[in-house]
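Weekend entry, working from home. Most of the wet-lab plans are on hold until the incubator is repaired, so I used the time to fold the two sequences that have been sitting in the queue since the last round of cloning. Logging both here for the record. First:
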Amino acid sequence: MLHETINILGPFCTQILADYGADVVKVEHPNGGDDTRLWREAGEEVIWKPDASNTSIYFNTINRNKRSIGLNLKSEKGREIILELTRKSDVVVENFIPGKLGKLGLGYDVLKGVNPSIILASISGYGADGPFAQRAGYDVIGAAEGGLLHITGEPDGPPTKPGVGLMDMCTGLYLHGAIVSALLAREKTGVGQKIDTSLFETTLSILANVGMSWVNMGKEAQRWGTAHPTIVPYEAFKTRDSFLVVGAVNNRQFKNLCEQLGNKGLADDPRFVDNKARTQNRKDLKRILEEVFVTRITEEWEKAFEGSGIPYGPINTLEKVFSHPQALARNMVQTVEQNAAVLGKIRVLGIPVKFSESKPSIRDGPPSLGQHTEEVLQELGLSSEAISQLRKAEVI
């Protein structure tokens, strides 16, 4: 697989495929490479060796199990190398602004000309066509223009973005599934194809029931904080020491919750007798529940609800998340070698999908810039002398 993407969504997509066994060749500009190599956070320098200036935790999050080549796509020799790689690849993934790949002489028609079965997977801010196709797109921009920020945050507060690049990663997830589907289609038809997606379209898609309410009823959405527009109670409640998320998605669960809270009669209150009534009287119910939840610490409520069948969970700090017994049991933190790190290794987030037979694996840490350039070019049949000439010409 040939991977010509930077930042988050493309690399996240191809990392998933790499975890599943794909041989991913990451094409980067020889000078600087992927932008995320430089996205270090405060204090991060203690992790890396003094001469390791071209890597970061951010880059290491989404680029494991890949090989990196440094290649200048604007040079004719660089273009020829891409075409030769395309001949030997199943998939090309790119996230240029629509049309840019064509200007480089590497559009779909050209790639298909050298490999009729190639699958070109393109990612952009707004999609390959339409009036906004040429606009650059980034995670929070897609979340804003696609409506997600309009519905995220507290009811009386400003719009709030999720704590991670959610639209980038959701788009990468969509695309990785589409690539697999295109490969399956090619198995049946023998024909490759171009597929494209965007941050904007992903955001519209995950508006889900909120978006459906608008397109069918013209119902404008609002921000609910951690609450749910159609299920009550279903939100975070402040305890004596932190927060606990509790839900009751049906009358049986609500009755059970009331019993666990020591107020059986609450389930028979006409204001809360069913979900419709609870939704209409959510403020009254929230006030009553808040007064109860704040009387105990979160751990005490967890013990009280254990085995009750009530949906509940604490809002954990990252310290608690990564020491969580379930995270440990499911191998959600693993260690890989990383030469750029002071310890010679780093810890990475595990693979969230488990297979009984064809097991994914984290085989290699993220590559240094151009680490595999010579290796890949030799696989294409280039001699050491030819590679040396490319280096002198600043093609690689």
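Second, folded right after the first finished:
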Amino acid sequence: MAATVASLFSLSGRTAIVTGGTRGIGQAMAYALAEAGADIILVQVCLYFAVLTPPSWATHMTPELTGAQRDESNTTTRDEIINRLGRKAHIHVAELSSREAVKHIIPTVTSLGFTPDILLNCAGIQRRHPSERFPDEDWDEVLQVNLSSVFILCREFGAYLLGRDASEFPSGRRGSIINIASLLSFQGGITVPAYAASKGGISQLTKALSNEWVGQGINVNAIAPGYIATDMNTALINDPNRNVGIMARIPAGRWGNPEDFKGAVVFLASAASSYVSGEILCVDGGWMGR
């Protein structure tokens, strides 16, 4: 008997790992996954401070990161998911600029008894400089957080899903990976060469992983946001000349907002998209069709 439309979009019994879920687009998508029935593991970053002795919990971190301190102070998303939506939510702290810390996310989460089958990579940073003066350290930081950490987390998550017994997945679908790309996966942008390179990489990484994994039950897709009114775009919103130019190009006639992503992320996480993989879904008010 064919599944109903409502059941196709249900995430009941599923668990999602979400990076960058404390504000903006990531927070809205975390809420959407929970509203559809999923439990949520929020990966939040560390803060730094000068210490002489690493804290005991930092034993898996590289030496340069032993000045990190747990940052669980932002519990808004977790509390909303638990109190309003009635789902389970857990905060895991990791520094996405550390490859070793990223490698330990999946083992740590699963050791706590969670069995995640959705991965949403939403965390990202932006640095703006004229390209002829773009600093090496900013280039390295953006590529590590926006691209390398995404690959590492996808790799570890994929290995975890492929290592589970096939009998756990009677439908044949092991899980879903959703990466956050950008319009700059397709275009070059201005004064953001590192961000453009990282998001171009996300697009190709998504396709490459899909080629290997969709036949084994792991769908891999990406969402490419257009111009969205979030903290990352404050500089553009406050620049009268750039804002006017951007608005003139958006067929929808407005900047997007985080709630515009709720339907897209539930679709890609759910059985409704079981035959969709390797795609970059633009949520951009029609920008790329202009």
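Plan for Monday: verify the second prediction. Residues 40 and 63 are 30 Å apart (CA to CA).
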